[in-house]
Write a structure and sequence with these properties.
With 82 residues, the protein is an alpha+beta fold. The chain has 2 domains: 45 residues, YefM-like fold (3-Layer(aba) Sandwich); 33 residues, no CATH class. Helix content is 29%, strand content 21%. It is built from 3 helices and 3 strands. Strands 1-2-3 form a 3-stranded mixed β-sheet. The chain is elongated, with a radius of gyration of 16 Å.
Length: 82
Amino acid sequence: MNVPITAKTLRASLPDVVKRARKGTRFTVIYRSQPAFQIVPVNESGSAPVSLVDDPLYHAQAVGRSSDGLTAADHDAILYRR
């Protein structure tokens, strides 16, 4: 089941949301009237249902620049040890 929840309600009822997520409920968090992110339960092994390797954003091309002089690809290499 996917339940919409506002960011304000999430902040006010986080313990209840955690309890329900552990029981299998998925939440779509609404921020400023737009869906912002989802809270999904982890599987029995303790990992997220989709591995990063299968996530299309994990393999997305680097975009933008940062103020530290590194490229997005450099940041990915640091963060994901690519």
